[in-house]
Structure of Dihydroorotate dehydrogenase:
Amino acid sequence: MTGFIYKISPRVAWARAAEAGRFDGAPVDIADGFIHFSTAAQLRGTAAKHFAGQADLVLAAIRVEALDPAALRWEPSRGGDLFPHLYAPLPMSAVAFVRDLPLGADGAHQFGELA
């Protein structure tokens, strides 16, 4: 599969991962045993459910083809929708871009154009 999947992360956690050259996951990822990602269509729901009102976040776009296909699984989650889960650390070499994920005046995150 080609294209992008996305990770929302607190800026400070992402900065530590960038220094290390890999993202091992947020506490929820580590507890679940895989790194949670979203597709472009799932992002707004993920932000609303798990990051409502949180500022100082970043959005990372990950190139699917740069990930180990044996470690990336599409599994049912919210509403039976298939979500991408990575059962390995995320190498920074797979990251296409990272940008701010600001809150709008309405309190919702502003995603802008996605790749």
